[in-house]
């Protein structure tokens, strides 16, 4: 079987001729990556803890256990093998999920919206609480667009001074200010022909908002300290967890910029509104962690999963 491909092998232990433990050792010598599950009807003769310590199988399932337990072990073994050998895990089978793990209607709707809008050049505003995956959506929109062979430039607008944000967006000329010891390229220059993603755009100050509006209206901008006009052709994506409508009414966000940015909206649901995805996320991150640290896959008992599902997860998927 050296040229055959096996993701997982389910091995009985008590067999005529050769016992399953010896067989598993020989199989492992030929196929070291394969996931082996021991399945025995004689647990008293083959104690799980001793088998686990010495043979290190992927899993050990008594024949008296439920079919659900066995199916879960097999499914996890197949997916763990594929993650280890390919580095990829797709929670939704052969359908694209853009890294968004889950099967709830809410997350499937987001995936449908990405698929629909990505090929266009429409501006997209991605809305959602912190940790719901807004940057993941922005990357998917770029990677599925006609601009995917050009750069994706990302700026996180929060916790930055207005001067720093302006420099990162538009660049500066040497000598424009004390620390400007050389020319610097801004995101609109770097991302020309590609996509610019502004995360937490609700944190932009009013002055920078006006300069951003000019870029959206004319495609023109200037580096700080440079009178020369430059032009850029980018697709703009933005994200925020803030209520921009309320900010417009308060005067802290420009109304004209808001309507320029609004375009298509993609709303990411908080985790507490898609609790059916939590068991899938638990398995996904457990596989990633165990693979990264070369651990045997750990399984969560159902009461532990139920406890996780009941949590509110204020940080969401992050």
Show the helix and strand layout.
Layout: E1 8-12, H1 20-30, E2 35-40, H2 48-55, E3 59-62, H3 67-86, H4 105-117, E4 124-127, H5 134-143, E5 152-156, H6 162-170, E6 171-172, E7 184-185, H7 187-190, E8 195-199, H8 206-218, E9 220-221, E10 230-231, E11 235-240, H9 244-250, H10 255-262, E12 264-267, H11 278-292, H12 302-310
Parallel strand pairs: 1-2, 2-3, 4-11, 4-12, 5-8, 8-11
Antiparallel strand pairs: 6-7, 9-10
Helix pairs in contact: 3-11
Structural class: alpha/beta
Distance between the termini: 42 Å
Number of helical elements: 12
Strand content: 5-15%
Compute the gyration radius: what is it?
26 Å
Order of helices and strands: EHEHEHHEHEHEEHEHEEEHHEHH
Largest sheet: 5 strands, parallel
User: Percent helix among the residues?
Assistant: 25-40%
**Strand order within the widest beta sheet:** 5-8-11-4-12
In total, the number of strands is 12
Instruction: Give average pLDDT, whole number.
Output: 84
Q: Could you list the spans in which at least 5 consecutive residues all have pLDDT below 50?
A: 88-94
Shape: elongated
Could you please describe the fold and organization of this structure?
The protein is an alpha/beta fold and 318 residues long. 40% of the residues lie in helices and 15% in strands. The chain has helices at residues 20-30, 48-55, 67-86, 105-117, 134-143, 162-170, 187-190, 206-218, 244-250, 255-262, 278-292, 302-310; strands spanning 8-12, 35-40, 59-62, 124-127, 152-156, 171-172, 184-185, 195-199, 220-221, 230-231, 235-240, 264-267. The strands form 4 sheets. The chain has a 5-stranded parallel beta sheet, sandwiched between helices. A 3-stranded parallel beta sheet has the order 1-2-3. Strand 9 (220-221) and strand 10 form a beta hairpin.
């Amino acid at each position: 079987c050296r040229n055959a491909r096996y993701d997982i092998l389910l091995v009985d232990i008590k067999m005529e001729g050769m016992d399953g433990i010896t067989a598993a050792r020989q199989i492992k010598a030929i196929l070291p990556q394969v996931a082996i599950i021991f399945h025995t009807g004689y647990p008293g003769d083959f104690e799980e803890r001793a088998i686990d310590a010495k043979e290190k199988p992927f899993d050990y399932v008594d024949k008296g256990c439920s079919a659900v337990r066995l199916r879960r072990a097999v499914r996890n073994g197949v997916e763990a093998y594929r993650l280890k050998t390919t580095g990829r895990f797709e929670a939704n089978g052969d359908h694209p999920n853009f890294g968004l793990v889950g099967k709830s209607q809410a997350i499937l709707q987001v995936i449908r919206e990405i698929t629909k809008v990505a090929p266009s050049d429409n501006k997209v505003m991605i809305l959602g609480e912190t940790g719901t995956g807004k940057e993941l959506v922005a990357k998917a929109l770029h990677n599925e667009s006609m601009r995917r062979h050009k750069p994706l430039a990302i700026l996180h607008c929060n916790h930055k001074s207005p001067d720093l944000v302006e420099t990162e967006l538009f660049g500066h000329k040497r000598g424009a200010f004390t620390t400007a010891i050389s020319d610097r390229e801004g995101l609109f220059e770097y991302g020309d022909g590609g996509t610019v993603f502004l995360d937490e755009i609700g944190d932009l100050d009013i002055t920078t908002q006006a300069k951003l509006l000019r870029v959206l209206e004319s495609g023109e901008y200037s580096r700080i300290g440079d009178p020369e006009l430059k032009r850029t052709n980018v697709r703009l994506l933005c994200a925020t967890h803030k209520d921009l409508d309320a900010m417009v009414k308060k005067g802290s966000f420009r109304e004209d910029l808001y309507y320029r940015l609004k375009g298509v909206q993609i709303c990411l649901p908080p985790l507490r509104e898609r609790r059916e995805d939590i068991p899938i996320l638990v398995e996904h991150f457990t596989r990633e962690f165990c693979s990264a640290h070369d651990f045997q896959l750990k399984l969560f008992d159902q009461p532990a999963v139920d406890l996780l599902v009941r949590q509110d997860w204020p940080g969401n998927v992050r």
